[in-house]
Design a protein that fits this description.
about 100 residues; alpha+beta; three-stranded mixed beta sheet; 3 helices; 3 strands
Length: about 100
């Protein structure tokens, strides 16, 4: 529930920025697909880790859980390599 609140606050704050409008930029869905494809290439970030990406105005929001802080950082680094990413907001929690 806390993650939902944080994500709602973060996304609503970005929505007021209006770089591309309330619906985000036209390429946001493609950026999300690119990030998920990059994350899928790294099995160490798969289950039990659960990482999702969402893009708004070319800002990628990563949320979910990883087992270690190193995996959290790695997920951010991997996501940054995806084409079209302007900035990353890492909201991933560490379970241990």
């Amino acid at each position: 529930m806390a993650l939902g609140i944080v994500l709602t606050v973060a996304l609503s704050g970005c929505a007021t920025y209006e770089k591309c409008g309330l619906g985000g930029c036209p390429g946001d869905a493609r950026i999300t697909e690119n990030v998920q494809a990059q994350l899928d290439k790294h099995p160490e970030l798969g289950p039990p880790n659960s990482i999702q990406a969402q893009t708004l105005n070319q800002v990628v929001y990563l949320n979910g859980m990883t087992a270690t802080g190193l995996e959290r950082s790695e997920a951010e680094s991997v996501a940054q390599q995806a084409p079209g990413v302007g900035r990353i907001v890492n909201l991933i929690s560490v379970t241990h």
